[in-house]
TrEMBL record:
Name of the protein this chain belongs to: Glutamine synthetase
Keywords linked to the UniProt accession: ATP-binding, Ligase, Magnesium, Nucleotide-binding
InterPro entries: Gln_synt_N, Gln_synt_N_sf, Gln_synth/guanido_kin_cat_dom, Gln_synth_cat_dom, Gln_synth_gly_rich_site
Signal peptide: none
Cofactor(s) essential for the protein: Mg(2+)
Amino acid sequence: MHEHLHSFIREHNIHEVECVIPDMTGVARGKIVPRDLFLAEASMKMSRAVLTITVNGEFAEFERFVGANDPDMVCVPDPSSIRLVPWAIEPVAVVIHDCEDFDGQPIGISPRAVLRRVLKLYAERGWRPVVAPEMEFYLIRQNSNPHEPLRPPTGRAGRSEVGRQSFSIDAVNDFDPFFQELSTFCQQAKLNVETLIHEVGACQMEINFAHGDAMALADQVFLFKRAVRETAYRHNIFATFMAKPMEGEPGSAMHIHQSIVDSTSGENIFSAADGTATPQFFQHIAGMQKYLPLVMPMLAPYVNSYRRLSRHAAAPINVRWGYDNRTCGIRIPPSGPAARRLENRVPGVDVNPYLAMAATLACGYLGMVQQLQASEPMSDSAYDLDFELPRSLEDAVALMQDCPELSEILGEQFVQAFCAVKEKEFETFNRGITAWEREHLQLHV
C-alpha cells in the first residue's frame, strides 16, 4: 500500500474507505471497505462487467467485451485521488481506482484507461495538456414523479425563480445555505472550484475550476457531481446535470478550456516567442473541427443531450471557430500569449468527464499530428450556418464506429464497448412512449 494512503488514513483517523471506479456513464461504482481491510490489501477485485452497465442499470453485451464467464478485474487505488468524504457522519475517505488485468495491463474499456491512453500519446511527443472545465447545472424542486416536468425550487424569499436572472448575485444568494455548504465540502475534498455565477436558465448555475492536469480535473469533476447532489439532498432540493432538463430553458454544458505546454520548458506551444499563434494552435483547432462530430457520443452521450444542441439556444450546432465568439462550437477566449487556449463548447454537462477530456484532447492531437488546416474564423453568428454536428444519438454512434482514426487513438475495444452501451440505452429509451406522442397522436392520427 502506498505510503501517502497510509499517512492520509492515519492523519484523518479514517474509519471506512469508499473504493470507487467511474463506469462508462460516470457513475461511481465500487465497495465501502473498513480501514484495516483497505490497508491490508493492495487492491480490490470487482466484476469487469461493471464497466458495461448502462445508465438505466442494464448490461450491454458484457459477454462480448469481458467474457462469458464474467471474470474479475483488479482495481488499484490511485494515491493522488484520496480525499475526505465531507458529508459523512464518521471520517470516511474516497479513493478512485484504476482498472487492471491480473498481469497489470490496463483494462482498455475503463474510462480512466482511455484518458491515460490519450495523455500518453501527448507525453510521447513532449506535450502536456492543461484543461479547465466549466460546469453548468440546475437546482430543481424535489420531485418523485418522473412524468412531471421539472421546476425551479423555492428560494429564501419563498418564491420560485421566474424569468431570466443571468449573472444575478441576488438570485444566487437566494440559495446561500446550499452554496455555503457546497463551498465547505469542496474545500474539504480539495476540489479547486474558482468561481460561481448564475447562468441564463431559471436556477441554472455555473461553477468554474482552476486549470490543471487533465486526469486531476476529470477526478474533480467526477467527485464534484456527487458533492452537488449530496448538498442538494441536505437542503431539500435536487440538483441535475441533465443536458436539457427543462423545456424552454437553455441546456447545461461542460465547456472545456484547453491548451498544451511543452513538458520540459512548461511553455505554451500555442504561442511563439514573439507572442503570435503557432501553426500547432490552428492545427489543434482544425482537429477539433474534423473530429468533434465523429466523437459526439462521448460529448453528448444520451438522447436528451441532443435537445440542448439547437439553434439560438446558447449551445453550438456546428464546429465553426472564432475569437471570443460564443455562437461557435470552438471559442478562442481573450488572453495573453502564455494563456492562449481554445474553449470546446460542444460537451454537455451530462458527460463522463474522463471520456469528455479524452475525446476533446484526442481531436486536437489528431489535428496537430496530421497537420490539418483550420477554416477561417467566424466573426458573426455561427447559428446562421448549417448543422455540422449529428442531430441524434443514433446518428452519432454510427459516425463514431466508422472512424478508424478514433478507434486507433481511443482503442478499438473501447469504441465498440462504449457504442454498445449507447445502443443499449437507445434501445430501452425507444420502448417508452412520450407525453408528446400521447398528446398529439392519441386522438389525431
